[in-house]
Amino acid sequence: MASDITFEEYMALSRITFEWADSYDSKQFDRLAAILAPEVTLDYSEAFGQKPITMSKESFLKLSDNPNRLGGIVDCIHHIGGSKYDRTGPDTVTGYHQVRTEYKRYKTVEKKEVEATGQGLTLMHHYYKKVDGKWKLAGTKPGRRMNDFNFDEIFAEGNPKSKI
């Protein structure tokens, strides 16, 4: 059964959530690296029908900073609405965040011509884990509540059906 977290934990986890969103939006992947656990699980089963995968922090950063994704031709902005946190173990917490995300995918890195735009509403699950006494982001699971425009083409690499 889930239980409450302390105020100090709430503040630490809220900071991690902000850093997660703003590091993507600003393309400051060093900030993303600072909040990640050594292993990160991505669960896109609900959003894209893919099996969850666990990868090293370094592999996750490489995926995030990919020039064909958030590291280059895709710009984004994450708006975080309401959040709640449930303790799931002595050193683990699950966060639930209402997130609205806007994306633009450009044809080239010069960003002169937009190829696709998309907006999504999701209930984002974040999995937090204490590592060496500090809270870290250990996983994400976006839901898929509502998408607008040509959202499915945002992360396509030559194939509009391609995902993560």
UniProtKB/TrEMBL annotation:
The lineage of its organism: Eukaryota, Fungi, Dikarya, Ascomycota, Pezizomycotina. GO terms for molecular function: lyase activity. It comes from the Eukaryota. The keyword Manganese does not apply. SUPFAM superfamilies: NTF2-like (SSF54427). It holds the Pfam family Scytalone_dh. This is Scytalone dehydratase-inhibitor complex. Keywords: Lyase. Residues 4-160 form the Scytalone dehydratase-like domain. Belongs to the scytalone dehydratase family. The keyword Lyase applies. It comes from Corynespora cassiicola Philippines. InterPro entries: NTF2-like_dom_sf, Scytalone_dh.
